[in-house]
Amino acid sequence: MGIARVCDFNLVLPCSFFSRKSHLSKLSNNQVRFIPSPDQSFRAKTSISMSENPVTRQQKVTLQNKHGEKLVGVFHDAGSADVVVLCHGFRSSKMNETMMNFSAALEKEGISAFRFDFAGNGESEGLFQYGNYWREVEDLRSVVEYFIAANRRITAILGHSKGGNIVLLYASKYHDICNVINVSGRYKLDRGIEERLGKDFLERIKKDGHIDVKSGAGDVQYRVTVESMMDRLNTNMHEACLVIDKECRVLTVHGSADEIIPVEDALDFAKIIPNHKLHIIEGADHSYTSHQAELTSVVLPFIKEGPAGGQ
């Protein structure tokens, strides 16, 4: 295992966040930049969905991953050579509100965007798997290679929730993207499992070979196998983040009221990624239900200020 390094980074937090002193106990004073909390009038506006804005140039794109499975996405062509690739989260799809809103906002800025379904999700082929972290990294690689072959530049990759993990893992393996945005990714992948599967999940999955996750009505939503569970438990975000290039700019955005992944995970990313900026959105939940506009207002300047894609 690599040795953790505390590197310089820009940290942007709302002032009210600092009443929770436990979050900052491991951060030095020169690593924190204070900003005023947004006023109530701004927060009221964040409930307006940016997906209401008309998108004039959309094209469904189908490409193959390295396993011969078809990946389906929607390309928002703003006429630019630069493309931002958007990655959805766990059991989600390209139709997720956050993915839709980012696509519309980027196109308004003259930046093309591509949102797609990982294999086993949405319209893409393949079987859904509980883990699949590095396999989804390879799905993303297939998308990057597709657009490079089409004479486009990938100026940034953005992922929400599990998608945030995927873009960081991608940056640790392929050093060809200059701008990476991690929106509410999980740092410690051994956490959050008991909430879904129960405290005795390891004993049950070793005994039965799998766990079926059911809905309230008793329908099986998905199956967690031993292999997919170990895929998740053996994916080490700490070691991966340590090998992200210093030239790669990384932005982590997290909601202070995230009910799925604790905000402490965002602070852990900030401490080990060399070229990193962290922004905490006060009051935002995991889905940024009432903070979609604020989320895009944080991410868009980061993309626009960054260098062009590495390819």
From TrEMBL:
Q: Which SUPFAM superfamilies match?
A: alpha/beta-Hydrolases (SSF53474)
The portions of this protein that span the membrane are none
What protein does this entry describe?
A: Serine aminopeptidase S33 domain-containing protein
Point out the gene that encodes the protein: LOC113695695
* Gene3D superfamilies per the UniProt record, alphabetical: alpha/beta hydrolase
Q: Which organism is it from?
A: Coffea arabica (Arabian coffee)
What PANTHER family does the record tag this protein with? Answer: ALPHA_BETA-HYDROLASES SUPERFAMILY PROTEIN (PTHR42886:SF53), RE40534P-RELATED (PTHR42886)
Q: Name one Pfam family in it.
A: Hydrolase_4
Extract the InterPro entries matched here: AB_hydrolase_fold, Hydrolase_4
Provide the Serine aminopeptidase S33 domain boundaries.
82-192
